Fold:
Amino acid sequence: MTPDLIVLADTIHTMDEQLPKQTDPPVQAVAVSGGLIAAVGSRQESKDWQAPDTRVVDLGNATLTPGLVDCHMHPVFGLDLTIGVDLADAASLNEVLTLLRTEVAQLRTANAHDGGWLRGWGLNPNAFGTVPLHRSALDSISGDQPAFIRLFDGHSALANSRALELAGIHGRFDFDQASEVVCDADGVPTGLLLEAAAMELVQRHIPQESFAQRKTRLGGLLRDFARSGLTGGHIMDHSEESGALFQALEADGELPLRLRAAPWCMPGSGEAEWKELARSIGTGGRRWSIEAIKLFVDGTVDNGTAWLYEPDVQGQSTAPFWPRPEEYSNAVRYFAARGIPTATHAIGDAGVDHVLVALESLRSSVPADVLRRTVHRIEHIETVPDELVARFKGAGVVASMQPTHCTHYSRADHSDNWSARLGAERADRAWRCRDLRDAGVTLGIGSDWPIAPYEPLPIIADAQLRRRSGNPDQHPIAPSQALTAIQALEGYTSHAAKAAGLWEVSGSITVGKRADFTAFELDPLSSAPDDFAASSVLGTFLDGDIQFLLERLP
Structure:
């Protein structure tokens, strides 16, 4: 063995399930050759590995782990969701309007190129309190300028009167999926648009960025992802534009992350569309590929489009996203029979139940060897009873969850919009990460960026704290669901690999696997979560290539 690279660190967590957690001497060295891990051992052993042209990176008292992978993100889709003023930290309607007034003034001064559209994103309905979301709030500050404000959940938006006029929206619409132009008792649109088909009615009238602008923004975003500690991401959407952007970035060099995409399969589609989606599986570039299919079975609790056994307190969230849910089951069966992984957005208890039934039924229709090698996932899983938790393991279904959806958007006293809509009993079943892990279920962790921030260190901390890291005065939300430090790290490493069906090639520092690593200032397994969340990522490696390295090394 003649390694290209040797990485040394005082602490290395291999996440290798075959190795003891403590060794004597400790594992403090990893050798890389041809992009793969060639040896794992002690500092003393590493001296025998070195050749004259081997690069040695000594991280000193840092901690090295397998590369962190975000199990649910939307980098290209997020380019559209993050245009305009960021409203995520606005805690009241007055704060929202103040930020929007400033944006209006800047648009008028700059004579904006996009037709003067007032744009914003990350709006939390909790900021409105008991005031209903209504276009009048935007009309009061926007004047003749059209306005389109995305809510934090990514599934809804608020448009002002001018935007509705430009889009020709004067009343209710019929859609193939569970989308809605919300109207008052007189049939007049309120400005609230629920789900993609309704939002698209307005979005198609908004001037678009150029391809070059989007390529620049995406490139910068991916570099920021790498500097946050990520070496990979499971992208829960895909389009022709996504592929073109990834190809253009790769033409300029290597992507700084390994990306695994899943295009959407939507209601109203049939076998012709499913066949085209199936043909895309396995296509891609050097560090990106299409590897799964993403489906939705419901929407969100906050906008009343989740699928619950019983209505929320406003009488909503009782309908599936697919008006004929049996067609969803047929789509899953079509892809599963061809060995194609699926990932289904399911938030409410009835939605999760329906997905589990669909996946359980595969045992009688899909060959056992195909089922064994194909990973099927449920994304989000926000409120479920005990009975559904128990069924995950038996069905062999992976759970993919986002701890900061809980810690950023709900409150321990149930005063937030999510909890208030559900009522105390269902809100007490919030994001049951620990119960799923204790049941033996694979649990991948992610951000769902741009729905929540992408930085993985605070997410790993929040998963343990069940509150926002850096806010020790906050009460934890359902603290019994807190993950241990090792479980939280597994969600970004070994379980992330299993959630993608890639455990044989990634997810641990094991000879023969990909040389993807993340280096930390603090040890994620022994440092206090709040301290870890505020600490630095020192570097990331992909295929043994350094993506970035801080200048604080010995």
About this structure: The chain has two domains: 70-74+211-537, 84-203.
